[in-house]
Amino acid sequence: SDPILQMRDTTVSFDMERGESRVLDNVDMDIERNEVLGVVGESGSGKSMFASALLDAVVDPGYLRGDITYNPGDGESLDVLELSKQERKQYRWEEVSMVFQGAMSSFNPVRDVETHFVETLEAHDYDVREGMERARQLLEDLYLDADRVLDSYPHELSGGMKQRALIALSLVLEPEVLVMDEPTAALDLLMQRSIISLLENLKERYDLTIVFITHDLPLVADIADRVGVLYAFEFVELGPTDEILEDAAHPYTRMLLKSTPNLESPIENMRPVEGSAPDPVNVPEGCSFHPRCPLADEECVDVDPGPYDAGEGRFVHCHHWEHSAEEIPMTEDADS
Ligand code: SF4
Ligand code: MG
Predict the structure, then answer these.
(1) Backbone phi, then psi, for 49, in 5-degree steps?
(2) Secondary structure of the chain: what % helix, strand, coil (to 5)?
(3) What distance in Å separates the CA atoms of residue 211 and residue 178, rounded to the nearest whole number?
(4) Which residue has its alpha carbon closest to ligand 1 atom 6?
(5) What's the pTM?
(6) Which residues form the ABC transporter domain (predicted)?
(7) Dist. CA 162–CA 141, nearest whole Å
(8) Closest ligand 1 atom to Cα of 295
(9) Which of 6, 73, 164, 226 has the fewest CB atoms within 10 Å, counting from its CB?
(10) What is the ipTM of this complex?
(11) Average pLDDT of each block of 10 consecutive residues along the chain (336 residues)?
(12) From ligand 2's centre to the CA of 58, what distance in Å?
């Protein structure tokens, strides 16, 4: 194991009149160098907060505590939550960069694309000529006509082109880690798939570590080495993608897989996960999934589970993970 980023006991909370609202709850997570980590969860599960925490970009009145360590290599290690203002600015773009949710609107409509690149380079005291060469290369790597895109205003580009231009922009300062929050949600399925395969190429070419955050488990399965499943502001399962897809140990992961259309399972077998994600001020005691879980018993109501080591590199927060496969079969009709 060679983690580039490590989160320990990381919590993000808000003080609300109704009580403390935890939107990230004691998360431990190692992100391995050069892996693609998929982070999956319903909306309101804490996905975006996980990303903001990684970048120390939680905004007031949100309160971030715990430990986040960045290990750029050569035995160096940085305490992310103790960075000075200047160090943080550097950390956020030059080490760990982020494509935000709905980021396509983050282009300034009255500036051409080139200006966005130049201003980013200047703001970080990078050599602009060298940086623009890199920008062109990145745009070409993303199958864009660099001259044409740089000369364009954002509204002159299609959604897919804009998204790719933003990915190029997020990489122009040569970060080690790219964090993407629902980067393809606004695009059609074909464009989503093509962006995923472009990301795979970029990852190899630039030795990137990628954190890919989405509500769409099958989509992330195409690119992720490991998948972490968020439920109620904590990871309930983490493991190699193949293990998660073939033999998920947590009831929620199994139900999530059954709720999403995919190639293996006919659409008539799709089952939505009944009920709704918990309110952050009122997360159920014990296992937070118990109100929605078909396997829940008294222990689940009383005792916060795990993590249990489920083998094959899987960690699962469920008392009864050994029975989840028989209780929640992945195909309803045993026609195989
Ligand atoms: Fe379900 Fe209990 Fe496992 Fe929670 S701990 S997921 S309620 S079986
Ligand atoms: Mg979100």
Answers:
(1) -70, -35
(2) 40, 25, 35
(3) 6
(4) 318
(5) 0.93
(6) 5-257
(7) 14
(8) 8
(9) 73
(10) 0.94
(11) 96 86 93 97 90 92 95 93 94 92 75 96 97 97 96 93 92 96 80 88 96 90 94 96 94 91 66 83 93 96 94 94 93 54
(12) 13
